[in-house]
Structure formats: C-alpha cells, structure tokens
Amino acid sequence: MSATTTATPMSEVLQLQRSAFHRDGPPSAALRRDRIDRFAHAVVSHADDLVASISADFGHRPEITTLVSDVTTLAIEAELTRARVGAWMRPRHPWGRVGGAAGRLAGMRTEVQPSPLGVVGVMGIWNYPINLTAIPALSALAAGNRVMMKMSELIPNTSEVFANAMHDAFDVEELAVLTGDVTVSSEFASLDLDHLFFTGSARTGSAIMAAAAKNLTPVTLELGGKNPAVISEKTAADRSAMRRAAERVALSRIANAGQTCVSPDDVYVPELATRSFVQEVFNAWGRVVPDMFEENEVTTLINDAAYDRVVNLIEDAAAKGAQVIGSMRSDDDGEEALRAARILPPTVILGVTDEMEIAHEEVFGPVLAVHTYDDVDDVIDLLAEKPAPLVATWYGPHDPEFAAFVARTRSGSVSRNDFAVSQSLPGIPFGGVGRSGMGAYHGKAGFDTFSHLRAVVGSELPVSLATLVTPTSDTRLLRAVRRGISGYAKVLERRRRR
C-alpha cells in the first residue's frame, strides 16, 4: 500500500498502524536505525526535487535556503539520532548504578523503560516544510512509534514530492503521509492518536488542541510569538559591536522573507543609539537586498493572503501614528510588480504603541519594530508581562544584565549575540512555553517526547506495602509512623530557625 494515503480513510490507516504496532512490539535499535536511514535517504536523495517544489509553492525561494534550512538540518538530526538512539533506549535507573545495586540487595529492583507511545501524528507547517515536519517525525520513529504525517495544504507540490519519496521508503504500516485541504487537517487532528505534534500559529494550535482533547490525545505544540531582541547598553556603546548586532538582526528579519517562527519581531535599543542602529540595519539590507533581486534570490510571501496581512499591519501602524521607513509607497515605481510577486521590501517601524495591531500580532514578514529604552530593567519588566515568545535574543556580553534577562523573562529559549543559535545546535531541546507552545523536540528531548517513561518495579521484600497500610490491632506500626512524622516535623522546624 502506498505511503501516500489520501485515497485511504485516515481511520483505516490509523488502525493498520496500531495493529502493526501491537503485533510487532517495540522495534529493536537496529530496526530504528534502519528507519532513520530510510527516512533521511528519502529526503536527501530527493533534494533537487524538494528545492524545486518548495520554490514553486512559495512563488520563489532560493535554493540555498531550502538546502540549509530544510535538507541539511534534517541530515544532521538524523545522524545525531542514529548515533545515540541505542543509548536512549536503555532502561534508566533513578537511583543511579550504586543506588540501584543497593536496592536490589534490599529486595527492590527499579528501572524506568522508555516505551514507544504507539501511533504518533505529526502536522507540519509550510514555512520550513521539511525541517518542521520531518524532524519531529524522525524523532517519533527513533522512539519506536508508527507515524502518520499531514503536510500543510499550502504546499501541494512539496507535499506530493515528499509523500512519493516516503512511499518508496516505507510501508504504510510504518509511516504514512497524508495530503489535502483544511478539512483533511481538521479530521487528522481529531483522530484517536497516541500523541499529536503540531507546528503553526497560536490560533491554529488552540483549535488543534481542542480537537485532540476530545480523545484525550496528548499534544506537543510548537508555535511562535513576538520574539524580542535586546541590544545591551554595552553593545550600543561599542560601534563595531553595535554594527555587528544590527547586521545580524537585519539579516535574521529577512531570512525566508521573515516567515520564520524564531525571527525577531521587536528589537529594543538604548535611546541614544537608536538612530545609528536603524542606519546600520538599512546599511546591512543595502549590502544584500540588491544582489538578492539581481540574482533572483528573493523569497516571496507564501500567498496573497499572507502578503495582504503584513501590509495591513504596516498600514494600521502608520494610520495610528507610527513612523514607517522603507516600506512601499503608492508612488513607488514597480510597486504593482512587487505586489504581484508577493515581494515586500524590508521595513522598519518606529513608535509602535499598544493600540496598534502589530504590537500583538506575529508579523511573519520582513518588518522590524524598533523600540527605544533608557533602562534595561524597564525592558525586562515589560517583556516579563508579555506572552512568552519562542525565543528571546540578547546582544551583549554574558554579564549580570544578561543573567537578569534570562532569570526574569520567560521564553522557549534564549539566544545570545546571534539569530536562532538556541534552535540550530544539534541535540539542544527546541520548544516553547505558554503561548509559544508546550513540549520540546530535537535530540534526546524529541526521543523522550515521543516515549512513555514507564516505571518497572519489582519487590522481593518479605513485607508487602498492602500489609503496611491495612488497619490492624497491632499498634506498634502506627506508633513508629507517628514517631517518624514527629521527628521530621522537628527537622523542618530547625531548618526554619536557621
């Protein structure tokens, strides 16, 4: 049966996989490594086709963006997972080797076994269609699960290429790729899966979670948010450091045309350095954007609705008093051509206030809001009150101010002095908190997300716990327990007085 299962009812695919999972039991380390290899080969061997199909779905996307952000990242994750999966599978001993040995001598054998969950569903997103769909699926396979994948309806060409590649590598009992429109996605989210992984917006994530809740299906949500970047006062005072920070912020804002869940929406800059910072941002764009146009290496916004949404955010901010620098104006030559191509020139917005939509909406486009500050403590207090983003970035030394930034704000992760380093290094957990998501994956974190850490405890003790908690006329045990609790209360009281 084909791994492309749009013609097969999803419930039948689920039943096939669940039956196979129960029939075969947890796969060996060798079989898991084989599945990892087949999965990675299916992607890498179709790299050229994926580059072409992703570009077609976007309208245009540079080859280097897909090869680095989608194909290479998957290959690195596959090799790390392949090398470590055997160790991750081993039973874990909560008391350590010495404690475990002592427990066995005392008549108790305790271990925690990572067990596959069963059938895992993975719902992908369009902005990095291989990275953000294939990596969680790879983690689920490594954990010993059967996997059903639903590709985004916004990338039909990529979905077909990817599904056919997986069809050649897997039987549907191991892995199935489903394609189709929003109704297919809705049905997929409502399946009685053993775990559901979703990457996308907070709004859609809420709907996915509600659908999964009807079956009590556990979910992992990778969402996004208004990822802030802070330029420290020390960086702002050092001209070369500020120029480097401005360049990195500028380039991170236009990577994939800003359609990146960890791209910074907002940057906070010391007031005295704001003008020079903005100038350096435009200098950085000026060095790369003309060549991108000349070489036809500009990533377009995914569709007309996405383009209009970003333009509306800019226009709303301008109408409410913000200063917009660098966006298209009605008299710009070539405006209609850019609009038709869904290309939005990089834009800076100053003076964003709370009543503007852009202050709350994730932009997902090449638009950067620049805010000024006098005291970094005020920025930290402000960010602490906002919904937690997927990543927060600090440009500055690893000093007490940075430590305060980490300690007093919430985010899925923290990057320092560069874009997305907390997401890009192999084996580092990637996940959100609060409105930016729940759960994590990549490396061992992904393996654990798609495993049940199952306690297996055996007793050779002559005394049963059931006996200890059963009422009896012998009051010696009751007196001993009371003495123990009273003694512990005295210990706690002494601690309080220290």
TrEMBL record:
<dbReference type="InterPro" id="IPR016162">
    <property type="entry name" value="Ald_DH_N"/>
</dbReference>
<feature type="domain" description="Aldehyde dehydrogenase">
    <location>
        <begin position="19"/>
        <end position="456"/>
    </location>
</feature>
<dbReference type="InterPro" id="IPR016163">
    <property type="entry name" value="Ald_DH_C"/>
</dbReference>
<protein>
    <recommendedName>
        <fullName>Aldehyde dehydrogenase</fullName>
    </recommendedName>
</protein>
<dbReference type="Pfam" id="PF00171">
    <property type="entry name" value="Aldedh"/>
</dbReference>
<dbReference type="InterPro" id="IPR016161">
    <property type="entry name" value="Ald_DH/histidinol_DH"/>
</dbReference>
<dbReference type="InterPro" id="IPR012394">
    <property type="entry name" value="Aldehyde_DH_NAD(P)"/>
</dbReference>
<dbReference type="InterPro" id="IPR015590">
    <property type="entry name" value="Aldehyde_DH_dom"/>
</dbReference>
<comment type="similarity">
    <text>Belongs to the aldehyde dehydrogenase family.</text>
</comment>
<dbReference type="InterPro" id="IPR029510">
    <property type="entry name" value="Ald_DH_CS_GLU"/>
</dbReference>
<keyword id="KW-0560">Oxidoreductase</keyword>
<feature type="active site">
    <location>
        <position position="222"/>
    </location>
</feature>
